[in-house]
Amino acid sequence: SSAATVPQLPKRKLGNTGLEVSVMGFGASPLGGSFGPVDEAGAIAAVHAAFAAGVNFFDTSPYYGATRSETLLGKALKDLPRDQIVLATKVGRYGLNVEDFDFSAARVTASVHDSLERLQTDRLDLVYCHDVEFGDLDQVVNEALPALAALKAQGLVRHVGISGLPLGAFRYVLDKAPPGAVEVVLSYCHLCLNDTSLQQLLPYLEAKGVGVVAASALSMGMLTKAGPPEWHPAPPALRAAAAEAAALAESRGQRIEALGLRFAFKQPGVATTLVGMTTPDMVTQNVDAVLAALGIKKPAAADGEAAAANGEAAAADAAADAV
Ligand code: NAD
Predict the structure, then answer these.
(1) How many angstroms separate the alpha carbon of residue 26 from the centre of ligand 1?
(2) H helix count then E strand count, the chain
(3) CB pairs under 8 A, 24+ apart, for 268-271?
(4) Contact 285, 258 (CB under 8 A)
């Protein structure tokens, strides 16, 4: 079918930022190579396919693949209209170890300038302090956030957020930072088939006027047939349960990836959910799964196909319940 008849992913407001982001965002962490080898042409085609399906939100970090993700995403985005893209990157995390975190004002400022260069752009729509719990939270509040506010005043950064795993770290920073200093929170692995703990924090975040980005709908690859990467933090029992769920889904003619996305995209209360993708095929599959989760029908031109898809959706709901 032609591009005009392909249903586009809807967009939602991201907190009070004024940004409108697609319900599924493109997670560029796997472009760094940490989930397996990445074919550069395929990755660029994935970014372009996502944009064609209505994805306007792209998420990266200098940490992903030691800057490779940013460089590759910058290359891919060069071919797209910059003013229709919401581009997010991060500061403060540059490696695996404690000494690879630096939320000092000087490093944060230098990091933004380096990211602008790699991403081949003159402004970053959103910059998060990356994985704040590994840094000094008071340094995040007293140095990183003021440095990002200064970059905002210069027009180099449009909006500021924080990311991390433990939900308590968000409360700590948000309760200490001046109002408006943190506009967005990125939480990962807490709104997926095996963990919905982010739901408990949503009322607090809403009261603070903070936009919420949920990341890792597939639990950082754990809810995939291929399974999680070696470095994934899940304990053996959880890995085994996820593998069992994937096998059960397959035995019922379903893909665990599609079921995981259906579950994640039916969760209320978040503006957008990031999914890491490296090929156009993954993009197509995932866009279909998200449209199905949201109850958005295929184009009327393909009536037979739409009816078939709706039948599949009912079967998928039954399988998701079983998993
Ligand atoms: P994810 O749960 O989105 O899973 C990504 C994995 O799933 C990759 O290996 C990918 O190849 C695979 N996958 C995706 N679609 C598939 C399909 N249809 N079939 C088979 N496999 C498929 O995990 P993620 O990438 O870590 O999270 C999404 C994004 O959120 C990241 O890329 C990153 O941008 C962001 N994120 C940020 C933080 C943070 O700030 N601390 C943490 C985690 C994620």
Answers:
(1) 9
(2) 11, 10
(3) 269/199, 269/202, 269/206, 269/212, 270/191, 270/198, 270/202, 270/212, 270/213, 270/214, 271/12, 271/13, 271/14, 271/15, 271/21, 271/23, 271/211, 271/212, 271/213
(4) yes
Q: What is the predicted pLDDT for the residue at 199?
A: 97
Tokens standing for 8? 């586009």
The ranges of the chain with pLDDT < 70 are 1-6, 298-323
Q: Give pLDDT tens digits for 142-187.
A: 999 999 999 999 999 999 999 999 999 999 999 999 999 999 999 9
Ligand 1 centroid distance, CA of 213 (Å): 13
* Amino acid type, 154: Q
Cα 194 to ligand 1 centre (Å): 15
Residue 290: CB within 6 Å of ligand 1?
no
Domains of the chain: 3-322 (3.20.20.100)
The model carries a pTM of 0.93
Specify the ligand 1 atom closest to the Cα of 28. Answer: 32
Distances (CA, A) of 92 to 62, 99, 138, 163: 9, 11, 13, 11
Measured from the CB, is residue 35 less than 6 Å from ligand 1? yes
Instruction: Find the helix or strand (DSSP H, E) in which 243 lies.
Output: helix 236-251
- For ligand 1, whether the C-beta of 34 sits within 6 Å is no
> Of all helices (H) and strands (E), which one includes residue 249?
helix 236-251
- Atom index in ligand 1 nearest the CA of residue 59 equals 34
Chain centre to alpha carbon of residue 299: 27
Residue 310 has a pLDDT of 53
Which positions are annotated as active-site residues?
64
Identify the residue whose tokens are 């404690």. Answer: 98
